[in-house]
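User: For a reading group we're discussing how well predicted structures match intuition. Take Cell adhesion molecule CEACAM8. Before you show the prediction, I'll give you the sequence so everyone sees exactly what went in.
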Amino acid sequence: MMVPYGLNWTLWMVACFGQYFGQELQFPKLTNGTVGQSVKLTANNTPPSTQIAILTWHFGINQIMSGPPDEPFIAPDYRGKVNFDKNTLALELYNLILEDSGSYILDVIPTSGSQLRGETTLQVFEKIDYVTLTGPHETLIEGESSANITSEGSGNITSVQWMKDNSPLSSSSRIIFSSDNRSVSISPVERSDTGEYQCTYSNPVSSETAKLTLIINYGPDGVSIEGPDVVDLGVQVSLSCSANSEPSASFSWTFNGSDTGVTTDKYTIDKTDFTDSGEYICTAFNRVTQKRESHRHALLVQEGGETGLGGGLSAGAIAGIVIGVAVAVGGICGLIIYLTKNNKIPNLRLQQKGQANRATQRGQEPDLHYEEINGSQNARENIMNLEKISEAQMYENVAYKSEYENLKHGVLNQPQALEPQVSNPPPVCR
Ligand SMILES: *[C@@H]1O[C@H](CO)[C@@H](O)[C@H](O)[C@H]1NC(C)=O
Ligand SMILES: *[C@@H]1O[C@H](CO)[C@@H](O)[C@H](O)[C@H]1NC(C)=O
Ligand SMILES: *[C@@H]1O[C@H](CO)[C@@H](O)[C@H](O)[C@H]1NC(C)=O
Ligand SMILES: *[C@@H]1O[C@H](CO)[C@@H](O)[C@H](O)[C@H]1NC(C)=O
Ligand SMILES: *[C@@H]1O[C@H](CO)[C@@H](O)[C@H](O)[C@H]1NC(C)=O
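Assistant: Thanks. Here is the predicted 3D structure of Cell adhesion molecule CEACAM8, as structure tokens, for the group to look at:
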């Protein structure tokens, strides 16, 4: 009763739905293979071979093999090319070529029950190989150069991915990928573009990565000097200069406009002297970008805190200073009278203003940043000229000059009344 019923049922199904009843053998939808290698097409729900009457493997419309599991007939084209596993019904294909890509179908007619069918699509890929990156050969300078990185490689490339320093490289207004993603153009380059670029070609069966390092030269910029503004007499002091630069900048130092011969980032004074007071300029130079940038730092050497004026100087010296200051005040009054008579008073005011400004700078903002050395040199020359004039006019006497030096360094612990007279000529003089 059962067999005729089953057969009848099958015939009815074939009549209604075509050749087979669509009960499925479960294969992966896609199977991936590599040229030259082998692949096994396996379903995960095949019935035991003892319950199978006939099975057939097709490639598209071509029959690969057919018959009972124990002794199937293998089509002449596939002899030596395939192996059949009667336990799993898996078909193994050897020595794959691109043309093996396509749809593989397994039909199973069991000894009882309905026909089963399963299908998988095999994609055969050429393995990816020989991936290389080619970058610019010329030196790259920030803001000036552009860089193209081009990739090449063999095999079936289904995806191209770019990374920089192990993070995905994304496109931007400066970073543009070609339409096939195989090259990237960076224009203009920035310092942040320095790093290791990785390009990965991949397909479902293989991937390969090539690497290329780009170095963007830049700077110097952000030049700065670390060090004290005011330092005691007789101690060691260092000013150290730094700059953002690739390659590392070389340094040079001037003191009051004269080259010091120091070419290290650090300028060290072993034992400070009053003559070390003045303006230090550090210039950073980048030999690749051929750019330079400077920074200046004012240093003031003062009498040590503990050995102040009272302790360090004899009574005679103090007397001398007091007299000297008195004479200096007299001299200033005389000079003012002279200048007033000769209509030169605006000039003197200018000088005083200059002094006052620099006094404030010393206190508040001793460091000025120069983008352009030329500008700074002019400014410095102007200050120095001003100084020469004022010193020549006001302090011919050497004694006066040393007092003036002390005053400038702000160390004179003189009776309070004297200081305003020096920095601010009293009305009585006019
Ligand atoms: C084959 O590759 C495809 C991508 O093309 C993937 O989705 C699929 O899972 C792969 N199949 C197997 C069996 O690995
Ligand atoms: C980079 O490639 C683009 C187009 O692909 C080209 O116009 C440009 O000149 C190239 N730049 C360099 C530096 O090779
Ligand atoms: C792989 O590359 C070959 C040519 O090298 C091409 O004919 C074939 O269609 C490609 N296969 C796939 C899956 O892209
Ligand atoms: C190029 O890569 C981007 C992501 O990096 C991706 O979105 C895009 O589809 C890729 N284009 C091609 C043609 O592969
Ligand atoms: C350096 O310049 C400063 C003023 O900026 C001046 O006070 C000092 O005397 C100068 N020193 C030398 C040694 O020229």
